[in-house]
Amino acid sequence: MHEFDDDVLDYFIENQGQLFPEDVASSREEAEAFLEDCCAVVVGSVDEVIEYFDEAGVDFDADSIMDASEVFDIGDGRFLIVEG
After folding, report:
1. What are the CA-CA distances from residue 51 to residues 7, 55, 58 (Å)?
2. Is 17 exposed, middle or buried (0-12, 13-18, 19+ CB in 10 A)?
3. pLDDT, tens digit, for every residue of 9-49?
4. Residue 32: which H helix or E strand, with range?
5. Which of 1, 9, 58, 83 is the most exposed place for a label (fewest CB within 10 A)?
């Protein structure tokens, strides 16, 4: 079960260019299928973003992780993490 509500899907569709040179989805259905295939996750805070990358064993700078192209700030306190 994924947490891809309409706000997350719409934000991804509008901002997918931050991670991909070409659009990968043009509808909510395409976006949801793509995000499920990528095993994307929605987390509820900056701390959870840091925890996600830490648990994945990714070497990162905590001060700049929020600028990573894989991290989408939904704008309501949640973040979408897409591994491209």
Report:
1. 23, 6, 10
2. exposed
3. 999 999 999 999 999 999 999 999 999 999 999 999 999 99
4. helix 28-37
5. 1
The predicted pLDDT at position 1 comes to: 45
- CA-nearest of 52, 69, 63 to 12 is 69
Contact assessment for residue 74 and residue 11, using Cβ atoms and an 8 Å cutoff: yes
Among residues 74, 71, 75, 53, which one has the least CA distance to residue 62? Answer: 53
CA distances (Å), origin 9, targets 12, 24, 33, 61, 66: 5, 12, 10, 28, 19
Tokens of 75: 């704008």
Residue 53, token pair as written in the block: 């990358």
Task: Give the whole-angstrom CA distance, residue 22 versus residue 3.
Answer: 24
